[in-house]
Amino acid sequence: MTTGTAPSLTQNVAPLDAGAHVTAIGWLKGTAAFGLGDGGVLLGRDGESHRVEAHPDAGVLVAASDGERFVTGGDDGRVVVTGADGSTKTLAETKGAWIDSLALSAGGAFAYGIGKRVTARDDKGREKSLEVPSAARGLAFAPKGYRLAISHYNGATLWFPNVEAKPEFLEWKGSHLDVTWSPDARFVVTSMQENALHGWRLIPDKGHMRMSGYPSKTRSLSWSGDGKWLATSGAEAAIIWPFESKEGPMGKVPRECGVRPAKVSRVAFHPNTYVLAVGYEDGCILLIRLNDASELLVRPGVEDSGITAMAWDKGGKRLAFGCEDGQAGILTLPA
C-alpha cells in the first residue's frame, strides 16, 4: 500500500509551529515537550503552545523524558530539566563542553557524557564518574536497577555507578553509536557507524548478535511494549527484528513494514499494541499494524520537512512528532 491509498488520520493531527529543528520529544503527562535546535523547549497541550528558553544562545543536542521530567543536553555544556509548568533548572554544567549523550532512569537518576567521561547522579544526588576507552556516544539505563550501558568505539561498557566493581566490557570492533536495553534486560543492542546493529545476549551467555544489511546508519530504535520486537530506521522500510527467543534474532529474517521510496528516519512503537509509527526523511508518517501490515496515513510527504523526532504519550492515545524545518504536530487517535 502507498501513502496515496492508505486510509488517513491527517484530520486528527493538530499542527504546531516549533520554529526550529526538532531534536527530540518527550511527554510530561498530558503535555508534549519538543527540544529544539535553537535551544528552546516548546510545550504543547490542547492546541496551545508555550516556548521556554532552556538553553539560551545555544542548541538542544539530546533529550530524554521519563514522563515527569524533560531533560536536555546542550552545546552550552548544561544539563537542564524542564517541567510541564515551564519551569527550568540547571542540573549540571561544564563550560566549553557539548552534552550529546544523556539518559534517565525510572528511579530518578540521570547520566550524561562529555567526551570519554560519563557522570551519573542517583536520586539522592550522589554523583559518580567513569572514563571509558573513547568518547561515549550513547547511554541507556537498564530497565531495573541502577546500571548504565555506554556505547563507544570497539564495544559497550556496563557500569553499576554505586558499586565498587570493575565495569563489564562488551567487545566488538567498530564504532558504536546509540545503545538500548531490551525491556526484559536480556539484551543490549547498539547501532554502528558501519550501517549495522550489534547486540549481546546477557542471559544466559554473552553471545553476539550481528544485524546487518542496512543501506545507511540506524539512528532510531524502538522496542515493542512486551520486548518481543525491535523496530529500526535506516532503510526504505521499518526493519523489525524478532527477540522472542533466548537467542534473539539470530537465524531469523526481520520483518519489513512501510516500504516507500524514502528512508525511514524515526520509529516509535505504540506502548500497548503492535502498532508502529514510522517517520520518513520525506516528511511522511504512517501508522502500521504488525498483525496484518495495514497502514494509516498520519502525515503526507512534505518537501524539506523530514521527520526528526516522534514519541507516544504513556497511554498511547497521542503521538507527537517534529521535523527538520520546525514543523510539528500531535496526532490524537480516534476514541
UniProtKB/TrEMBL annotation:
Q: Does the keyword Repeat apply?
A: yes
Keyword list, A-Z: Repeat, WD repeat
- Domain Anaphase-promoting complex subunit 4-like WD40 spans what residues? 268-331
Q: What Gene3D superfamilies does the record point to? A: YVTN repeat-like/Quinoprotein amine dehydrogenase (2.130.10.10)
Q: Output the superkingdom of the source species.
A: Bacteria
Quote the Pfam families the UniProt record gives.
ANAPC4_WD40, WD40
**InterPro entries according to UniProt:** Apc4-like_WD40_dom (IPR024977), WD40/YVTN_repeat-like_dom_sf (IPR015943), WD40_repeat_dom_sf (IPR036322), WD40_rpt (IPR001680), WD_repeat_multifunction (IPR051179)
- Protein name, entry field: Anaphase-promoting complex subunit 4-like WD40 domain-containing protein
Please give the organism: Microvirga ossetica
